[in-house]
Here is the input.
Amino acid sequence: MDWFAAHLLAWFDLNGRKDLPWQSSPTPYRVWVSEIMLQQTQVTTVSPYYERFMARFPTVEALAAAELDEVLHHWTGLGYYARGRNLHKTAQILTAEHHGIFPTEVDELVKLPGIGRSTAGAIVAISAGVRAPILDGNVKRVLARYHGIGGYPGSTATAKALWQHADKHTPAERVADYTQAIMDLGATVCSRRPACDTCPVNVQCVAHATNSVTDYPGKKPRKAKPTRSVRMFLIQNAAGDCLLEQRPADGIWGGLWTPPERSMQHTSTEMLAELGESANAAVTTRTAEPLRHTFTHFHMDIEAVHIVLRHSPIVVAEGKDWLWYGQGNNTPIGLSAPAVKLIQGLKS
Here is the structure.
């Protein structure tokens, strides 16, 4: 075992996190769900979602058998909803083609939707003790600083160098503990605001020795985010229920429910016409201030147009992509983050 791994494991024995929800009974299924949830999301946010998710879907078979709407309902608020869709899709593949059993080879796991090399490594290392390196965001930060590797980790050359170091340091023994330890070090000590004095490997850290810790890892080249403007129609019936439309399976908020989204040129009259109604079907119509929602690559400014109807349009009752959502509807569905905000605004 090399110096880095030995000192990291000694630190982990005394200081590592050992009471996270997914650390009890670390089966491949439980590790997989936690690793997917933890992508782009902090532990404090994930923990309650994980516990609710596992209570409802305790096995890969239970997840596979569930409706996608219910899976996305339990994902609402976590963001990056493709993760939830891929979980459901992979669960169905595992159940249908692998009898619900996870492969123990990284090369086989990465063939499944939503599982990359690092996630696959974490699954086999933590659940089965198979030696496999990982390189999530926390590990990238640790290794970039320790070895003084500049450049954006998303670039090919930098990623290759980081993977080489990740593989070199991963021990053959205690690999599950090591995998958790290096993630913990990045999350709690070698964070964006590092506590170098408490780091178990600081005496050999290049960034610490050169007083350049905050220079690593290299930043992603910045590009100005474009802005897209849309209208969402908050249509309520006389009972106060809000009309939602299910998004296509692919694309932004795939499979989720939102108020009908249309272009900025789409008028209330045109929206009502889609529902088979005339303009006089509305009791009131008003437009709210735009709501900004930011994605990874662009901003979306949402102008909410509130329409209150005298009655529920017949076409909605007949369409599978429409749903009246209100106090009397207990159907578990996945809602986009703007949908949650806009619906809550109707109640205030």
In short: The mean pLDDT is 91. The first strand starts at residue 227 and ends at 236. Residues 138 and 186 are 4 Å apart (CA to CA).
